[in-house]
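Help needed: design a sequence for this.
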């Protein structure tokens, strides 16, 4: 991950969990979601102010639906915001996102614990 890009993101989006060394993550998928947002920002899909507003809206919706806002679900909101923005910007569609989410679920169900998950054509059926 580009340390400079991560520093710019943590400066622009004040809610990012961080310590003195930069952003912190509870699991590898959180770091991957963060890196996807950095890449999409670098490619001009959204600005950091636009991202921060969309993330704040997502968190507010989740809290209204009962999310206790303990910090443990922060990157779930981050991922939901990514999905919303890429669909809103025409990078992909909600249908394609759901298709891939279902395929990953199928692949994960058939993959033994600790093994890498590999998508196959059958996962999309």
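Sure. Designed sequence:
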């Amino acid at each position: 991950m580009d340390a400079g890009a991560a520093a710019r993101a943590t400066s622009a989006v004040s809610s990012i969990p961080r310590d003195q060394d930069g952003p912190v993550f509870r699991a590898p998928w959180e770091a991957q979601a963060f890196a996807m947002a950095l890449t999409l920002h670098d490619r001009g899909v959204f600005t950091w102010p636009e991202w921060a507003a969309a993330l704040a809206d997502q968190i507010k919706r989740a809290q209204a639906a009962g999310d206790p806002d303990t910090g443990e679900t922060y990157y779930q909101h981050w991922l939901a915001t990514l999905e919303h923005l890429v669909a809103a910007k025409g990078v992909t569609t909600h249908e394609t996102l759901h298709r891939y989410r279902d395929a990953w679920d199928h692949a994960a169900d058939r993959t033994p614990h600790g093994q890498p998950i590999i998508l196959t054509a059958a996962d999309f059926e």
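The beta strands are 18-19, 22-23.
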